[in-house]
Predict the structure.
Amino acid sequence: MNEFPHVMLREIYEQPEAIRRTLALYADADGLRPDAFEPLANWLNPRGEVLIAASGTSRHAGLAAEVTLEDLCGLAVDVEYSSEYVTRSAANPRRPSVIVISQSGETSDTLAALRRARASGEPTLAIANVDGSTMQREASAAMPLGAGPELAIQATKSFTCQLAALYLLALYEAQQLNTLSAAEIGARVAEFAALPEQIDRQLDAWQAQMAVLARKYSDATTFLYLGRGVHYAIAREGALKMKETSYVEVEGYPTGELKHGPNALVSEQVPLMVLATVDRNFDASQEHYEKTVQLLKDLHQQGARVIALVNRGDEEVPPLVSDTVSIEPASEHLSPIQEIIPLQMFAYFMALERGVDVDRPRNLKKAVIEA
């Protein structure tokens, strides 16, 4: 543990094992564990309506889950800022099932959202990293995480474990609703089981490359992070990591929104980070990729500085951008778990380039218990 100069970097490297532990809570060699999901048997709204309430990094996990639950299960999902949800003047008349997500399980706004949902008679599910936390105790059902203690202010391994738990929840609901076959679910669990080792293989290369890119882009005053579909959530989370770690102003947008205003910001001092991975076996992902390639062609003509996250072996994107970061291929809804890790590292090394004390970011606390 002493080989890491900062807690944040150590916890970035702990993510493969944290994901393995989270997977083991809910699945084994035979697939999803029925005993682990038994508390959720009657959780889902009969109309398939779900509301996710969370703040900060946890809300970005909720944004990813929104797409995954809709794509794999056909559910209708809304994502709310906890702080906004609790100030609404009236309860939701649809009585959706409510998911609250929090690293600590004590986040004040999210705990208030849970209590409001319970008071309205809505079934609740808490996804939290701290065993025995208030949210886990008070919700109708709970999905603990296997991240272990997270000491860095910046959430890294708790975020990837949130994504892991939410993906497994989607597989469980797909099983219950028969939107995926037993064979499809088994294949997805098997792919997931191989993901931690896949991430492990890439960590050192990502670390070396992001250190180099941080030096190259240290003059940037602002970044724009872009992603489509489930990857938009990762663009948002990558942007937040950069803000809170290095104090660089970053905004995350859906890729297709760049030309609806933000493109005016793009300049030598305002480069872009574009998520351009693809799942060739998923039509929507292929369409997103093709549209992203077209945008990158336009940005290339515009002279923009662009870093792109691409699948290893991609031949279309590299000629169009300044730099690429390669990621081993994964299915569309699993890919975000590994995509965020090089972005965490980029934020870390940008902070070092700017002389920021990574483990003591200003004005921030690990758990927001007052808001």
Notes: The domain at 7-194 is CATH 3.40.50.10490 (Rossmann fold). The radius of gyration is 20 Å. The chain has a mean pLDDT of 94.
